[in-house]
Design a protein that fits this description.
Blueprint: H1 2-16, E1 20-21, E2 28-29, E3 47-48, E4 60-65, E5 71-72, E6 78-79, E7 82-83, E8 94-95, E9 98-103, E10 110-117, E11 123-131, E12 134-135, E13 141-147, H2 154-157, E14 161-169, E15 175-184
Parallel strand pairs: 3-15, 6-15
Antiparallel strand pairs: 1-2, 4-5, 4-9, 7-8, 9-13, 10-11, 10-14, 12-13, 14-15
């Protein structure tokens, strides 16, 4: 039984590793073999910046939210600022749940950097993680959810627009970026009381 499960994971990983055109070269490259590496001048094999689209053949990446599954977010959607169990008050005690959905990346040992920034570019939160992506609910997609980059000061992020983003790099150097502007709620304590002056 364990061999069957291992074989299925190998097949899934192989299916997720697609041939990705090298940026600016016009040639195709694969994740292995000899000869031309297909790397761009920046050292990556490609760049994925478009949201998930069933008609798209290249790698795609999407930012979302969610603690138990990937949840799509829309431009301007209001998301709650969450008081985490770690404590820390307004400085480091709050976060906005981040998640990602990808297609065309090798799901094994990816590096994902989640950020929350103000529209001015001021960074409010950043978290980098390395993990294996889980199969998504749509064929060929892989997801990660439950990332909680801690806000350095939740009062700077409350009741305003922020940009949530993710940068993803797989084991073969394929990179992607996705972002979405959302609106936030206010920072509340465990009783629901507003904590910012």
């Amino acid at each position: 039984m364990s061999r069957l499960v291992a074989a299925i994971w190998v097949l899934l990983a192989a299916c997720a590793s697609s041939v990705t055109p090298a940026k600016d070269s016009g040639e195709e490259s694969d994740s292995g073999g000899s000869g031309d590496s297909g790397l761009t001048d920046s050292g990556s094999r490609g760049d994925a910046t478009d949201p998930i689209d069933g008609g798209q053949s290249g790698p795609t990446l999407e930012i979302g939210t969610g603690t138990e599954r990937f949840e799509e977010i829309m431009e301007g959607q209001t998301l709650p600022i969450i008081l985490g169990p770690q404590g820390g008050g307004r400085a480091g005690g709050y976060h906005i749940w981040h998640a990602l959905r990808s297609r065309g990346f090798d799901p094994i040992s990816v590096e994902a950097t989640f950020r929350t920034v103000l529209p001015s570019g001021e960074e409010l939160a950043k978290e980098t993680r390395r993990y294996d992506l889980a199969p998504g609910t749509t064929s060929g997609t892989y997801v990660a959810y439950g990332s909680a980059p801690r806000l350095r000061d939740c009062c700077l992020a409350e009741e305003t627009d922020v940009v949530m983003s993710v940068d993803l790099t797989d084991a073969h150097g394929v990179t992607g970026h996705a972002e979405q502007r959302v609106h936030t709620t206010y920072c509340a304590d465990h009783d629901g009381s507003h904590i910012c002056p």
